Amino acid sequence: MNYQNRAGSWVLAFAVLGVHFWEHGYGAWLWFLMGLQFLVYPHLVFLRARHAREQLKTEVQNLVLDSFCFGVWSAVLGFPLWICFTLQVCGCMNLIAFNAAKGVLQSVAAYVLGVLLVLALGGGGGFAPDTSLLVSAMSIVSLATYLALFARGAHNRTVVLNRTRLKLRQSEQALQGQIEAIQSLQAQLTEQANRDSLTGLYNRRYLDDSLQRELDRCAREGVGLSLLVIDLDHFKQINDRYGHAAGDEVLRQVSTLLLQNMRSSDICCRYGGEEFLLVLPHVELAAAIDRAEHCRRRVAEQRWQAEGQPFDVTLSIGVACSPDARMAPRELIELADRALYRAKAEGRNRVCLAGPEAATDAETSEVAPVV
User: Fold this and answer.
1) Percent of the chain with pLDDT over 70
2) CA 219, CA 367: separation in Å to the nearest integer?
3) Which residue, 110, 128, 138, is CA-closest to 9?
4) Residue 247: what are its φ and ψ, rounded to 5°?
5) 183: buried, middle or exposed (CB in 10 Å: 19+, 13-18, 0-12)?
6) In the chain, what are the domain boundaries?
7) Which residues, 6 or more positions from 56, have their beta carbon under 8 angstroms from its beta carbon?
């Protein structure tokens, strides 16, 4: 855009100067130099900037050189008012577009330097500010045309800039949508990686990541954390008698019953085959026993059928509690496991504690000492 404006306006300047030259009878040598300056020079400096490594810097240098040349011509011609005014305004406008206020100083300094060079060499044309009415009118028209071209170029740049901004905004929105989709997919994949595919409960991998975190949080808050290890009694017999499909259905329904008795802060995991593990933050031992007994009773009272035949499903549950939540995860799980083994050894379908407190018999719902 800058090249088109400069090249076009310099053709107009050539026409204005041509009329002025003709009126004052300047010689062929000056006509030749003026033709080189205003018809050939703009294309040469454009090519120089286009092929330069730093194009913007080179173009600014070209514009400074323009103002210098305008100063030379102003001094050579004797400072014709309208011609000098038109040339200097064009030079300033170009540099302002690139360097703002600094461009004004650059243009004036280069212009003055060109004038001083001519005066120093003794080649000035004196002082003849007057121009004919035709040259003055042509200068005004040329200046107005240049300003119109300059405004059109600014408008075109604004349009291109707005389009670019719109495309960038659309690209940012599309990118944000892709990022959100990727984040959603990552969340889904993480959730799938942490879930048991059969029951939908959290898996052992999630337990390994979360149990220590919950213990640390409860320890900071000064509250206890309880752990329930749950095993389906005689689950292998269900698989052998009614098939693995029936066994899978039992696992799913037991998972549903366990979840119905859960708080949002609790963690229910499928720990292995027919084993489940419940992490109960902010739950002390007495409340954990109640929760375990409730789960055991719900499963025992459920009506179970496979192939039209009823059968029983019962749970053995081991309970462990860390009152200050400062126990290591492995140690807490081992305590609950030992309580579970005790429940199985004592006849199954019951809740046993990790310490020498008590065990709850499912048939009598009474608490008896553990030996």
Assistant:
1) 95
2) 29
3) 138
4) -65, -40
5) exposed
6) 2-165, 204-368
7) 98
How far apart (Å, rounded) are the C-alpha atoms in residues 159 and 140? Answer: 28
CATH number of 204-368: 3.30.70.270
pLDDT digits (tens, 9 = 90+) for 21-47: 999 999 999 999 999 999 999 999 999
Question: How many other C-beta atoms lie within 10 A of the C-beta of residue 60?
Answer: 19
**CA atoms lying within 13 Å on the CB side of residue 235:** 19
Our answer to whether residue 180 is catalytic in this structure is no
Only one residue has tokens 């080179």, namely 58
- What whole-number distance in Å separates Cα of residue 87 and Cα of residue 300? 101
CA dist., res. 61 & res. 324, Å (int): 76
CA distance 167 to 221: 51
**pLDDT tens digits, 244-283:** 999 999 999 999 999 998 898 999 999 988 999 999 999 9
The mean per-residue pLDDT over the stretch 184-197 comes to 84
Instruction: Using pLDDT thresholds of 50, 70 and 90, give the confidence band for residue 355.
Output: low
pLDDT, residue 209, reads: 86
- Confidence band (pLDDT; 50, 70, 90) for 341? very high
What does pTM read for this prediction?
Answer: 0.54
What is the arithmetic mean of pLDDT over 211-238? 94
Show the CA angle centred on residue 292, arms to residues 289 and 293, nearest 5°: 85
Q: Active-site residue among 249, 274, 331, 334?
A: 274
* Residue 308 CA neighbour count, 13 Å, CB half: 0
Q: How many CB atoms lie within 10 A of CB 132?
A: 14
Closest CA to 2 of 98, 102, 139: 98
Q: Are strands 304-306 and 359-361 parallel, antiparallel or unpaired?
A: unpaired
Q: By CB neighbour count within 10 A (0-12 exposed, 13-18 middle, 19+ buried), where does 153 fall? A: middle
State which amino acid sits at residue 224.
G
**Radius of gyration from C-alpha coordinates of the chain:** 46
